[in-house]
Design goal:
Length: 246
Amino acid sequence: MQVVSNRLALDDRLRAAQSVLMLTGAGVSAESGVPTFRGGGNTAVWKGMPFDVISSAGMLQRDLPAVWEWFNYRRSLLTALKPNPAHETIARWQNHFSDLSLVTQNIDGLHQAAGSREVIELHGSIWRARCFDCDARHNLNEITTADGVPACFECGGNLRPDVVLFGEMLPPGAFERAAEAAQRCDVCFIVGTSAVVYPAASIPEIARANGAYLVEVNPERTPLSNMCDEILTGKAGEILPMLSQW
Ligand code: BV8
Ligand code: ZN
């Protein structure tokens, strides 16, 4: 692990911060065993299809059972996995700072499992389904999804995973809440994301434009690295716990 940081400056910033924003991506769950998408992650391709093809609005129209099969497979990988020290540290920080907003692109629910509250899930949740016809949400541990497309309890319509696929809009209000948090934060952490998926990657840009101090935590550089004030190079589960004395 290599940490390139001006620790004193960051300590001072954190001590003085009224409002902190954390934007997280797949890398924050990597140490729990969740595969990442890019950079060699092993859910980059599934049954010969790149993940942004199978996880797309077009595929939902063309082959809904295949989309369910893909999400069932991913849920089966997640069932046994637990939050890691990165999730746990972020959950602890929420008790320390009076205003800490957690905005995640992850759909795995591990932040909530670690105790984080009011998580802004930009891309939905793999643990929920949504009805095409009546929009009802269903918890997936109450539904059998093994065969084909599950049906809605309320109206019998086809269900789909309650996640945001490529080419789809984000859940109503989610981006707006994240953008508001970005506008008011003093420090913005960008943790474990390749920062290539929009509009999520614009959140730190909004924070920056409003004068926030930007800190990236990632073993690799990203398109946002150049605008960051600090780059902490390494694993989130090792770096985040080192930053806080509380
Ligand atoms: C939309 C859910 C309006 C499903 C996902 C502007 C320019 C170009 C294109 C666009 C644009 N604006 C919008 C677009 C289109 C598109 C987009 O961004 N395309 C890009 C990629 C070219 N965006 C959309 O379609 C969005 N919707 O814009 O709506 C609209 C609608 C219709 C028509 C026009 C406009 C919706 C995007 C939602 C996609 N949903 N997920 C699913 O999971 O199957 S995407 C997927 O990528 C992931 O789920 C995740 O949510 C997202 C981001 O990935 P990351 O989390 O960053 O993960 P990644 O694997 O990439 O990187 C892992 C990182 O972790 C790496 O950097 C690695 O180094 C690091 N790491 C590894 N280990 C560790 C670590 N870091 C720390 N510690 C470690 N231990
Ligand atoms: Zn329904």
